[in-house]
Amino acid sequence: MSDNLANNQKTEDRFETLLNNANAARVISSAVEGTLGPKGLDIMMVDKFGDVVITNDGVTILKLMEVNHPAAHMIINAAKAQQHQIGDGTTTTTIMAGAIVAEGCQQVLKGVPVTKVIEGINQGIDYAVSLVEDNTILLGEKDTDLLYNVALVAARGQKDIANLVVEGAKQIGLNHLLKPDYKLSEAVFAEEFADNEVIKGIILNKEPLNQEMPTTMDKLKILVIDDNLAPEELAAEAITTETGFNYFLNAKKRYQTNLMKIKELGINVVIVDRAIDDIAEEYFTQVGIIALHRVSSREIERLCKYTGAQKVKRSSLNRSPDIINTYLGYAKAIKVDDKLEHTIIYGGQAENEVTIMLGAATEEVVEEKERMAKDAASAIQAAWQGGIVPGGGAIEIWAATQLEDIAKEFTGMTSYGVTCVKEAITRPFACIVENAGFNPLEKLGDIIAQQRKDSSPAIGLNCDSGEFIDVLKAGIVDAVPVKVHAIKAAGEVATAILRINTVIRMKNYDDKNNTDIF
In CATH, what is the architecture of 218-331? Predict the structure, then answer.
């Protein structure tokens, strides 16, 4: 570490930076390695208040970890991007990224220029992706058994979750999963003491404003307000003047007129994303309108797609009845579940929607079941969109074997970067084998030999017996988009970390006088 910069700034030499970043990547990777595979275990996360989260979901672990190192944050962000884009494969992304950084660091320390390592990694990633895509098996209407297998792998072997998610996909229609703006994972809803079921409708995690409002109703006309439902607000100073006070009285009168307009239009359900004031609550209760407020934005978006409603501001209620009618949504029925404290809307008249309901005995178990179900939902949607490949690490071993042959064709030092990818993409398989209680090096060598002998990328390991199996026939498959995005994301973040030549601490500034703090 050098202290020759002004203002006591500090900088690292390039090898120190490289080693520090590689170590940070290793720590992040090792945090999730024990969770991978059918024999992977859970991690208990504990905060300063003693609250506990028990999970083996990679991105959840990474989000909750206390992390300060910038390179570690880069890998965590790559896992978050994987979650956002695909919804599954975050642990694989993290492990591969850490392995590529570690392998790249070793090559640089041996004397290979970092630019050549990065060049080789980029080419190796492209080859690996193309090798995966070349082995894609596209799914058809008759392949629902394979969809179940995808869900089962993503749900860590939980058969009840896999069955529910596949049933939900069937009920909404498999072709609906092809829509770019639809995410099946958003249909997953978990609650303590609920029954596992697929509901042909949507759930709003709110109850009506009070118990006097109806709890069931048919033939719904739904108004969705993206605003507070209350009279127009005026500054206290404005009300003290005669003009301001008259304006306030007129605004209040106009507001009450608008509430009556809602009833006159036949609207019987009002959904508001913020607060509903006492005047509106009292009026809606008197006339038998069901009103829910502080409904989440995500639930409101689903409601609008399901019923055809358009979100409006409260000022839109000043418009003519004919215009307001164009904003309304329609559904067949609504039912309030007092036990689970939520509201279900059935028979929306616009897009098809389902809710995949999961229940468990405790809050911690509910949260973990919800995470697994969301992973399973994302995985089967990705599989339906982009096909499947042999799972259990088999396709990565096949790609690594091909990369080893490809690396020999390169002249110069670029081949060392390709070798980094070759070593790194087998790391998830090594974790799966180790978590199952077997020797990773031994099983890796045996499977490479068997795959070469059979010319098959489907030869993998039975984690119970340790014997070779055809993973396709055994139903162990992964979605292609999950695999491809994981490899690409791992390569991108790894090369970004390896490009860092040195780290310089930035100056801090005092907020008041803009002077340096030492």
Answer: 3-Layer(bba) Sandwich (3.50)
